[in-house]
Amino acid sequence: MSKSPIKGASRRDAQHNRAHILEVARAAFARNGIDVSMDAIAKMAGLGAGTLYRNFPNKDALLAALLDRHYEGLEERRLAIEAEETDEARALERWIEALGDWMLAYEGLPEPLRAACRSESPLSQACHTVIATTERLLKAAQDKGHARTQVTGRDLFLGALAIAWAGGDTIAGEDTTKVLRTVLQSGWRESAAS
């Protein structure tokens, strides 16, 4: 039995609409941050709001789909870090930097990521995965005595999130992110004296 040509065309149209929405949203969020409304995205895409909401029931679902591409880049950085670093503390430090960059993919992204940590959302899975990776890298540093044992991967994730939020703020200075990352690092690193 062959597939109906109408169903095949309909499926292609749906895939095209989804890809088009993602491209329009990516450009809109890159330009204006995530405060762009769903209705504005539908209008920019030249589609009805119903088409947008059929593909993405809310903004978190749209952000989660957009972050898939950014997560691939984050994973590439993790693989490079693990391949290049033999010092567990330096590997963790580089991972936290990569994490902060991922969190700054779009202006305003730290807030929905924070919300996804405390309640279920389409962004929750990405947060849990990143926290688990952070926990694993932290544990390796802790096992070598480079990181404080009371610190958790979730603590570091939330610290990086706070830095991304503060660094993305319009009142932040040029060096805000760098300074705050240094403060976070001094908080998780085990001091030689202790």
The domain tally reads 2
- CATH class division of the largest domain: Mainly Alpha
- Helix fraction bin: over 70%
What's the Cα radius of gyration? 20 Å
Q: Which fold does the CATH topology of the largest domain refer to? A: Tetracycline Repressor, domain 2
**Mean residue pLDDT:** 87
Beta-strand residue percentage: under 5%
Unreliable residue stretches: none
Query: How are helices and strands ordered from N to C?
Result: HHHHHHHHH
Classified in CATH, the superfamily of the largest domain is Tetracycline Repressor, domain 2
CATH architecture of the largest domain: Orthogonal Bundle
Distance between the termini: 73 Å
Shape: elongated
Q: What's the number of helices?
A: 9
The beta-strand count equals 0
**Biggest β-sheet description:** none
What structural class is derived from the secondary structure elements? mainly alpha
DNA-binding region: 37-56
Keywords: DNA-binding, Transcription, Transcription regulation
InterPro entries: Homeodomain-like_sf, HTH-type_TetR-like_transc_reg, HTH_TetR, Tet_transcr_reg_TetR-rel_C_sf, TetR_SbtR-like_C
Pfam family, one: TetR_C_43
